[in-house]
Amino acid sequence: MHDLPKRNFFDVEAARQRCLQYRKRILDISQQVQALHIGSAYSCTEIVDTIYHGLMRLKPDGTSPDTFLMSKGHGCMIQYVILEDHGTLSREDLDLYCKPNGRLGCHPDYGNPGIEASTGALGHGLSIAVGMALAERGRKTDGVIYTVLSDGEVQEGSTWEAVLMASSLGLANLVAVIDNNDFQSLGRTSETHPTFYPLAAKFEAFGWECAEIDGHDTAAIFAAISGRQGRRPFMLVAKTTKGKGVSYMENVPIWHYRSPNPKEYEQAKVELEAGAS
Amino acid sequence: MRNTFSEALYKAASANPDIYIVVADISPAGSMAKFRDQYPERFINVGVAEQSMIGICAGLALKGCQPFAYTIATFSLYRPFEMVRDDLCYQNLPVTVVGMGAGVIYSTLGGTHHTQEDIAIASALPNMQIIAPCDPGECTEATAYCATQKAGPVYLRLGKAGEPNFTDKAVDPWKFGKLRYIKRGTDICILSYGVIMQKAMQLAERFEVKGKSVSVVSCHTLKPLDVEGVRDALGRHEQVIVIEEHAPQGGLAPRVKQVAWDIQARCRLDTFTLQDAFIHNYGSHDDLLAAHGLELGAIAAQVGAA
């Protein structure tokens, strides 16, 4: 049984600074490779930062009793740069991203430091998280499983199998966040699937505790998750902007995948700095 | 076979609190009910949600548990195929995917419930191990292996119910990855696995009536196949016969032919498989096998045992 208390304070200014540095680091890496899902990573930067730095507890040995699983594997650049910041991944690991001698690719690979599961094919992560939550409960630990899903994943039938199962099993140690940027690869989710919304109501109907917040507001993310009742699985619908922080990337589907050219890179750097100040 | 599986699993779960079974809406008969009643927190029924069944097993295994996924073979392997591939095989997790009632055992339920290509499909997956016991005795041994091994995922292909034991007096013990001689002869060797072993045993009797000395071998581990054992069997007998309840491609028959080619085997080699076809017949399990051409008299006539 773990006996680490919940974190009860989250430094929003420190989070803002971290998120700026993470976005800039991702931007730098974008100049080494042609593709890295930059828009998807910028969309969930604050979400993943808050989970790692506000919600997951740390034991004295630096490990956590809690687990983070990046179900939307294509957003893993933000996880990589956070793990680099923690020293879990090395600078060399990220410098070799998607290169022949490197070990990091466009999707998280189980076996790499800090990576809890191989994701990338969508619709797998939530079932895996349910299994992890069951294992923690079976061992009578208080370990919490945090996972981040994409809009596209919520279209997968397998996700709904897991949604139904998690609440049926009463998995109070499962926290999922939907990075609800309203985009999938080819366009707006609200256009391809007009009945996608309301989203939170769907999860509530499936027996989850739900909240909906601005997904770039770290204080709101922290407050919603840490303030949950915790008797059922918890779903946070985080309203986000794909490509957040760079004007020409925001809500433009091509930035799901491509990397900025040198001119775009310089502009992005300026805009990120300006937006964060 | 399903009852011996359940009993073996119950025993293993009693000794190891990390053993879970995740089932997809399948009747918890016999010892499975005992498992459910005694260890309810480790008996998970996901309902008709096979993708989730595999994903949940992956999550349990990633946390160090030893889970079994259990349902009818078509639904345990085909329906959640990408989860089996990515979650279990790619991550190389010690999860056993139990395919119950494989082949054409569900003989009145139609082609949607037949599992004719499972060995081929599972064999194509890196890291996957495949075991198909031929009788309840082997099922117990295989289940015990699955409950303790950490090498990676296993596809455990089972029959259904009421199978006789063929291996009580087997020459060899059951050992994962090794051919098992149930009886050892000098003239003819019959290689088989799974429930259809009954036909292999009956065919051996017909040869023996004619004065032939016959080996009958359970190829219970289909991946990794005991290639050395197959090579030896091809080299020691003047006639080798493969009988399997599986499509002609991707199963034991083509593997044995491949080995025979590689070693330039000089024996006669006959193979009998299901057809590469969806058939629309109903009746008993034997009726379905006969419709596929797997009828004892017809096989015996072709191989000189009539």
Give an account of the 3D structure.
The complex is a heterodimer of chains A (277) and B (306). Chain A has 277 residues and is of the alpha/beta class. In chain A, 40% of the residues lie in helices and 12% in strands. In chain A, helix 10 links the parallel strand 6 and strand 7. In chain A, helix 1 packs across helix 3 and helix 3 crosses helix 10. By secondary structure, chain B is an alpha/beta fold. Chain B has two domains: 156 residues, Rossmann fold (3-Layer(aba) Sandwich); 124 residues, 3-Layer(aba) Sandwich (Rossmann fold), CATH 3.40.50.920. Chain B is built from twelve helices and twelve strands. Chain B is globular. Classes of the chains: A alpha/beta (277), B alpha/beta (306). The interface between A and B is medium-sized, with 30 and 29 residues.
Give the strand tally of chain A: 7
Report the average pLDDT across residues of chain B: 97
The CATH homologous superfamily of chain A is called Thiamin diphosphate (ThDP)-binding fold, Pyr/PP domains
CATH topology of the largest domain in chain B: Rossmann fold
Number of distinct beta strands of chain B = 12
Q: So what's the overall shape of chain A?
A: globular
Number of helices of chain B: 12
Beta-strand portion of chain B reads: 15-25%
- Look at the helices and sheets of chain B and give the structural class: alpha/beta
* Secondary-structure-derived class of chain A: alpha/beta
